[in-house]
């Protein structure tokens, strides 16, 4: 069985995987990181989004071995020292989560967006989460949360 | 009482764990030594099962058990009528694709998956009945021979006033036929869970459920076990919208655990979740509406036919609801309603946001907008002349209870959209210039109303336990609210914690709401009918008032704990009654919520594509316990209504499913949503509600589709009477109108 080595949420990890294993399953079933959600299982909804080298990918389609040697960030890797990432805090403050099943993926997509584009327009925010489906909210409070996070990050001098 | 907590947008009680990804949903539970199960689904919508051969599957290493009908102690269930087999055995019939032949249990998910492909089933196909209008005809193939000689499950009749006289008084009559499709709930969290035997030997299920205590009754019947030998735990639920009111996985997990006595995990994939679980009922609706020249409604004649699918589920209560709201939130002196729900071999249909009030809302609001056009009256003005007020006589002959806020919702939405009110007249705003020469603008208005709580004489109730822990000085250090109220995401636990904090006069942060575990919490009733704020809120207020009194005693005795149990009955404030068999007159509902919405759209005349530019949504919630959560319900309701209007259709051909994934069944993405969304919170109190509150969850979906479809008509002059208004459909209608088709 091949060994996958990756930097997961800032820590080097080694995990034995089979050639066909998908990153989402490895994260959830082998590493116990249940924050990455599986909803459609075929790359159509974004619930399983994680960052690979800073870019959001659908981990339910992403071969685990493709993450070899890369930096992988899941929802559990956001924030520091038990403090929430500003995006997570903004999601709370704007009452963005309803059922919350899409929320880790939304937060990851927002993180990828704001890291690359700290001052997105509303249109750019919509594009940034256009691959993430939500059935509860109508997306409005999620958009507002990302706007608020961008504002707060700008005050602090940018993301990261 | 002060309003320190109620009315504040406090953070949701579960938000922090949800944004961290720590909140556990059913698929996030794993137990030591667990097995994995997969269902062998029916391959036919209507067939007799001749032979089930499990031997090739059994031979696969790692297969632990294959359950068939013989393994089910009492092989029947059903939330309203017990007409569903848990597993279909040899010689028995499958009636839709969601019927199950077997459950394969293996040491790994892969093994279970592989083994279920090896189960060989022989069928004798039977004639498929896929249109309820055909199914209700005498001589149609019967879906349930054991239930009599007709596929009609129920016929509701309403006869109010004198229908002939009503139409004789009318100057204008509009007669149209409407069709709404099957709709998939499409909650983001597919069915999943774990079944196991707990430390007390109870068959236990961890799964998402809207009414765990009702599931328990059904599971105990299926396993022929006493109620105290079964248990259900409901962790975080990834959305429900009515779709988890029936059991789709709970009983299967219980059966697995019961049979193999080991923990068993089962997770549906998205295709199973779409293909093999219940849907919103399609309704076929014939409407004839009459009004006088000056815009007073005189009569309405309605036929509703709903497609129940292979099993009854809640089709009858949904039909009862649909019929009672069929005339809309208007005073109509003369009415005749005939409503039917009919078995077919299509997908089972069940509760979904609105519970039968959503489908007729499309029809009655389209009728109002067509009437407005025929009369040359503004659509807001026409509604204002006919909308219900306190004491108005509704369709079923009952006076409307105090707190009818429908006019206020329409007033706020219309003024917000730029309407001008001049005396009794309402004047439509100028819509501005379209964004491109090939686009046309239009605006549409619609209203809706729906019940809060269970209706028609049902003893709707909620039981709650409130426990206080007092500190050294006798102050309340913590309060724990225990009740079986699922929070499927809308924030029921947050709102109920706010109500408890308010009633106890303590900080919101000191209140906890217990995990729904039927071995710990009492029966709070279903998490449906927009009822928990009203029903459980009323129970909590009364329990807290008693707890405050008991605390005074505790202060004298030095006791540090206070516990109060209270059961609130809806009939204590407003008894409801069932339909009269002959004329349908009754007092159907406990409480109501009201809503009005306005859509501004642009339609591309070259493609038929509709874009919703601006959307105004006004909901009368009586009292917003948490205003941001109310806005969230409005956003989500409009999302679902917009999908209903423009993109969503669960398509079956002769009972077979054509839309099995999100790329085939289109729920709106962020790009499909209205560019600008303006929610209005209207607070016309219901004096019987907690702090005046009503319900909100379902109402926000009702007027969305008719508002958007009427806006399309305003833009390009075509009426789309069968949902959804896809670009193709609008384009063809425009060609037809231009005489080119």
* Largest β sheet strand count, sense and barrel closure of chain A: 5 strands, mixed
Largest beta sheet: strand ordering of chain A:
2-1-5-3-4
Structural class of chain A: alpha+beta
Sheet bearing the most strands of chain B, described? 8 strands, mixed
What is the first-to-last residue Cα distance of chain B?
Answer: 66 Å
The proportion of residues forming helix of chain B, as a percent range, comes to: 25-40%
| CATH architecture field of the largest domain in chain B | 2-Layer Sandwich
Average pLDDT taken over every residue of chain A: 96
Q: What name does the CATH topology of the largest domain in chain B carry? A: Aldehyde Oxidoreductase, domain 4
The largest inter-chain interface, given as chain pair and residues per side, is: A-B, 53 and 54 residues
What is the top-level CATH class of the largest domain in chain B?
Answer: Alpha Beta
Structural domain count of chain B:
3
Q: What is the overall number of helices of chain B?
A: 17
Structure description:
The complex is a heterodimer of chains A (about 160) and B (about 750). By secondary structure, chain A is α+β, with helices and mostly antiparallel strands. Chain A has helices at about 25-30, 85-95, 105-115, 120-130, 140-155, and strands spanning about 5-10, 10-15, 50, 55-60, 70-75. A five-stranded mixed sheet of chain A has the order 2-1-5-3-4, sandwiched between helices. In chain A, helix 2 (about 85-95) packs across helix 5 (about 140-155). Chain A is globular, with a radius of gyration of 15 Å. In chain A, about 55% of the residues are buried. Chain B is an alpha+beta fold and about 750 residues long. In chain B, the strands form eight sheets. In chain B, strands 3-5-1-13-10-11-12-25 form an eight-stranded mixed sheet, sandwiched between helices. Chain B is globular and about 75 Å long. At the A-B interface, helix 2, helix 3 and helix 5 of A face helix 1 and helix 15 of B.
């Amino acid at each position: 069985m091949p060994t996958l080595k990756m930097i997961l949420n800032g820590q080097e990890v080694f995990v034995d995987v089979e050639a066909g294993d998908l990153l989402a399953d490895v994260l959830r079933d082998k590493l116990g990181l249940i924050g990455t959600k599986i909803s459609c299982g075929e790359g159509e909804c974004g619930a399983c989004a994680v960052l690979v080298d800073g870019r959001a990918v659908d981990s339910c389609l992403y071969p685990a071995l493709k993450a070899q040697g890369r930096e992988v960030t899941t929802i559990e890797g956001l924030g520091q020292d038990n403090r929430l990432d500003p995006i997570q805090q903004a999601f709370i403050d704007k009452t963005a989560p309803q059922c919350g099943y899409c929320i880790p993926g939304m937060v990851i997509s927002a993180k990828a967006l704001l890291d690359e584009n700290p001052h997105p327009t509303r249109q750019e925010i919509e594009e940034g989460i256009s691959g993430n489906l939500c059935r509860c909210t109508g997306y409005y409070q999620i958009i507002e949360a990302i706007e608020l996070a961008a504002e707060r990050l700008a005050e602090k001098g940018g993301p990261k | 009482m002060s309003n320190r907590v109620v009315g504040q947008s406090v953070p949701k009680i579960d938000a922090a764990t949800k944004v961290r990804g720590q909140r556990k949903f059913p698929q996030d539970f794993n137990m030591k030594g667990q097995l994995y199960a997969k269902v062998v689904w029916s391959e036919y919508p209507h067939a007799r099962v001749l032979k089930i051969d499990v031997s090739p599957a059994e031979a696969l290493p790692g297969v632990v058990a294959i359950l068939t009908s013989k393994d089910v102690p009492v092989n029947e269930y059903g939330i309203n009528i017990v007409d569903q087999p848990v597993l279909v055995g040899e010689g028995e019939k499958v009636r839709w694709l969601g019927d199950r032949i077997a459950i394969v249990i293996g040491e790994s998910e892969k093994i279970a998956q592989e083994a279920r492909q090896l189960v060989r089933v022989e069928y004798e196909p039977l004639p498929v009945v896929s249109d309820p209008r055909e199914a209700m005809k005498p001589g149609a193939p019967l879906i349930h021979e054991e239930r009599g000689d007709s596929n009609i499950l129920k016929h509701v009749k309403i006869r109010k006033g004198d229908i002939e006289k009503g139409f004789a008084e009318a100057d204008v009559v509009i007669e149209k036929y409407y069709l709404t499709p099957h709709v998939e709930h499409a909650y983001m969290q597919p069915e999943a869970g774990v079944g196991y035997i707990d430390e007390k030997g109870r068959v236990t299920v961890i799964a998402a459920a809207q009414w765990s205590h009702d599931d328990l009754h059904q599971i105990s019947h299926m396993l022929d076990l006493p109620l105290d030998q079964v248990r259900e735990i409901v962790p975080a639920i990834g959305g429900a919208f009515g779709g988890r009111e029936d059991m789709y996985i709970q009983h299967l997990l219980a059966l697995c655990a019961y049979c193999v006595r080991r923990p068993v995990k089962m997770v549906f994939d998205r295709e199973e979740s779409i293909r093999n679980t219940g849907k919103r009922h399609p309704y076929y609706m014939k409407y004839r509406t009459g009004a006088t020249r000056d815009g007073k409604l005189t009569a309405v004649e309605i036929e509703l036919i709903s497609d129940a699918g292979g099993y009854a589920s809640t089709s009858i209560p949904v039909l009862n609801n649909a019929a009672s709201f069929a005339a809309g939130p208007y005073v109509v002196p003369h009415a005749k309603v005939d409503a039917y729900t009919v078995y077919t071999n299509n997908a089972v249909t069940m509760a979904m946001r609105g519970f039968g009030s959503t489908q007729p809302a499309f029809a009655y609001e389209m009728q109002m907008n067509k009437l407005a056009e025929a009369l040359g009256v503004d659509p807001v003005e026409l509604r204002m002349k006919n909308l219900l007020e306190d004491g108005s006589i509704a369709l079923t002959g009952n006076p409307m209870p105090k707190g009818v806020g429908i006019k206020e919702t329409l007033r706020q939405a219309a003024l917000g959209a730029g309407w001008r009110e001049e005396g009794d007249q309402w004047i439509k705003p100028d819509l501005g210039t379209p964004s491109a020469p090939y686009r046309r603008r239009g605006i549409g208005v619609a209203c809706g109303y729906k019940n809060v709580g269970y209706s028609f004489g049902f003893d709707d109730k909620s039981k709650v336990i409130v426990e206080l822990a007092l500190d050294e000085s006798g102050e309340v250090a913590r309060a724990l609210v225990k009740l079986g109220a699922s929070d499927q995401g809308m924030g029921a636990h947050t709102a109920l914690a706010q109500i408890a904090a308010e009633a106890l006069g303590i900080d919101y942060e000191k209140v906890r709401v217990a995990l729904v575990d039927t071995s710990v919490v009492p029966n709070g009733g279903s998490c449906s009918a927009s009822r928990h704020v009203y029903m459980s809120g009323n129970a909590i207020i009364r329990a807290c008032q008693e707890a405050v009194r008991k605390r005074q005693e505790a202060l004298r005795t030095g006791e540090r704990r206070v516990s109060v149990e209270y059961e609130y009955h809806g009939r204590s404030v407003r008894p409801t009654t069932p339909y009269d068999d002959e004329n349908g007159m009754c007092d159907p509902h406990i409480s109501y919520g009201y809503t009005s919405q306005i859509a501004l759209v642009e339609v591309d005349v070259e493609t038929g594509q509709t874009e919703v530019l601006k959307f105004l949504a006004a909901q009368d919630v009586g009292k917003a316990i948490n205003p941001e959560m109310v806005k969230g319900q409005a956003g989500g309701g409009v999302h679902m209504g917009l999908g209903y209007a423009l993109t969503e259709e669960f398509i079956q051909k002769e009972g077979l499913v054509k839309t099995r994934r999100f790329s085939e069944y289109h729920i709106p993405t962020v790009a499909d949503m209205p560019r600008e969304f303006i929610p209005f919170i209207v607070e016309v109190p219901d004096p019987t509600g907690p702090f005046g509150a009503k319900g909100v969850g379902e109402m926000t979906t009702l007027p969305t589709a008719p508002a958007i479809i009427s806006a399309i008509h305003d833009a390009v002059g075509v009426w789309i009477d069968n949902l959804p208004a896809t670009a193709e459909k609008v384009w063809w209608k425009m060609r037809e109108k231009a005489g080119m088709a």
